[in-house]
Amino acid sequence: MADARPMPAADWKQSVVYQIYPRSFCDSNGDGVGDLPGITSRLDYLKALGVDVVWLSPVYRSPNDDNGYDISDYRAIMDEFGTMADFDTMLAGMHARGIRLMMDLVVNHTSDEHPWFQQARQSRDNPYHDYYIWRDMPADSSLPNNWEAAFSGSVWEPNPATGEYYLHMFSKKQPDLNWENPKVRQEVYALMRFWLDKGVDGFRMDVINMISKPAGLPDAPVIRAGHLQPSFGMVTNGPRLLEFLREMKAQVLDHYETLTVGEAPLATIQQGQDITNVYTGALNMLFQFEHMDLDAIPGDGRGKWALKPLALTDLKASMSRWQDALWQTGWNSLYLSNHDQPRPVSRWGDDGVYRVASAKMLATFLHGLQGTPYVYQGEELGMTNVRFARIEDYRDIETLNMYREAVQDRHEAPAEVLARIHVKSRDNARTPMQWDATAHGGFTTGTPWMQTNPNHTEVNAAQARDDADSVWHYYRRLIALRKQLPVLVEGRYALLQPEDPNVYAYIRTLGDEVLLVVCNFTPREQVFVLPPNVAFEQQQLLIANYVVNAADSVRACTLRPFEARMLVLR
Ligand code: TEU
Ligand code: CA
């Protein structure tokens, strides 16, 4: 194929990425907000953990309606986070430690305070008008379609100056860009070059599979009569998506050494294959959401808030499909955690008595799969969900809007709504990083923008680094193993015992080497029997979260609560 370049250096396939949510990572000046000098001061911590790449959530100028995912200037640093000089110092500090930096590229939408939108909304013949997506507002103000925005309400917001509505898939302060307009695409490519020329190493692309909208913006299927309807399904696989991404690759990415990951809600296997195909695709990998949706009731209009327990067999089926589908043609990103998701140890482990064991088990499960693992800040400490008793202590726009709709409009009991927030709110992941046992977990000397989880007195980085059995040291060892074992990078995945509802076991095979991962997902003992077709003579334990006797064979064993083992069989 003419456009086929050699597979990029295998190094990114051996890489582990660490995500920083700057607002909550480290505050250097006591104003209660994390900042770039704070990050710079913690680079040795990242180096000690052994991560290769940092993905930095947005640090651009922003009115912070959605904590930086609403950008008003793509070439400036948010005032609260510091200056461009602070950024350059941080980047140099990363590079000096062999750590690469992926910026967050948020170009499905801008802030409504971006100069483009300020212009665009003034008149229909303004040169920037066509940078965004508009519909006439009829005399009766009826909405152009039935789409519900991600953060509640309609996707359509009136713009009186032009007598139109504009489209916003997220908050009304996040108008969607019109990617049909070639000028918009050139603006995006130019700002990407600006950061690449500065020396950044790639991008995590926010909701990048939503940039191509279907012609005519037709109504979404009705699943709740008389309501607005979930609308992501209408835009996550638009007709020109691949074309736009390939154009971006040809015009920008191909001219630099880059690492790219696209965030892709509702991504199908087909989309994953198309976009990450080494020869014909456009990005190195995708964040797909299938596993993140397994503990919500499908087809329920309440989306992620319609809670249901995870069935381990569903997780196995989903992960295995992706492992198989991208084998040799594409590449998976592996994550349980980010700034939008509850803490995995609270979600699918146990944040009480088995917190440490279950955090290590989930890490073993994830890091043994094929793909590039992502560690979200605090995950390496086994940080947990937070349970604020008052809605006033929450900050996330999605959470606050959902609460208002549920309590004020639908008259649901506040305690019940809060209970759902305790399980699923994005703020679970956004409480300040817990550095030590001092006030506010050592995150700030001032008043943090959101309260620290009270368990910072026990769960914190200082404690974890002093304790050889901590979650932190376990992550460090897992990350190091990836560099030593080709089978972890290249080995072909096969699921064992798909029907077992308690133990997730799989192998990875490379030549005559077999890597075996066995994970007990329950707080009870489970008997594990290796299928007889997995033949071997010697077992070598690589890592485990309990002491395992040398005589204890994986052919048949009893797994303790949340026990995990990773072994090489020869
Ligand atoms: O998220 C997009 C997305 O689909 C979600 O994960 C979304 O946050 C969902 O509503 C969670 O329940 C990305 C960013 O990661 C998120 O922080 C932003 O709010 C969003 O895009 C808009 O930029
Ligand atoms: Ca600060």
Description:
By secondary structure, the chain is α/β, with parallel strands linked by helices. It has 3 domains: 9-108 and 182-478, TIM Barrel; 115-167, Oligo-1,6-glucosidase, domain 2; 489-569, Golgi alpha-mannosidase II (Immunoglobulin-like). The chain has 16 helices and 22 strands. The protein has helices at 36-40, 43-49, 84-96, 115-120, 182-198, 232-235, 241-251, 269-276, 312-325, 344-347, 355-367, 397-409, 414-424, 461-466, 471-484, 486-490, and strands spanning 17-20, 53-56, 60-61, 73-77, 100-105, 134-136, 147-148, 156-159, 164-167, 202-205, 229-230, 259-263, 285-287, 333-334, 372-376, 492-496, 503-510, 513-520, 526-529, 539-544, 556-559, 564-569. Strands 13-12-10-5-2-1-15-14 form an 8-stranded parallel beta sheet, with helices on one face. Strands 16-17-18-22-20 form a 5-stranded antiparallel beta sheet. The longest helix has 17 residues, at 182-198. It is globular and about 80 Å long. The protein starts with 16 loop residues before the first strand and ends with a strand. Mean pLDDT is 96; it is low at 1-10. The protein binds 1-O-alpha-D-glucopyranosyl-D-fructose and calcium ion (CA). 1-O-alpha-D-glucopyranosyl-D-fructose binds next to loops. 1-O-alpha-D-glucopyranosyl-D-fructose is lined by residues 66, 69, 106, 150, 170, 206-207, 263, 265, 304, 339-340, 398.
The CATH topology of the largest domain turns out to be: TIM Barrel
The SS-based structural class is alpha/beta
| Terminal Cα span | 39 Å
- Please compute the radius of gyration using only Cα atoms: 24 Å
What is the tally of beta strands? 22
Widest sheet: strand order? 13-12-10-5-2-1-15-14
Q: What general outline do the C-alpha atoms trace?
A: globular
Helix content: 25-40%
Unreliable stretches: 1-10
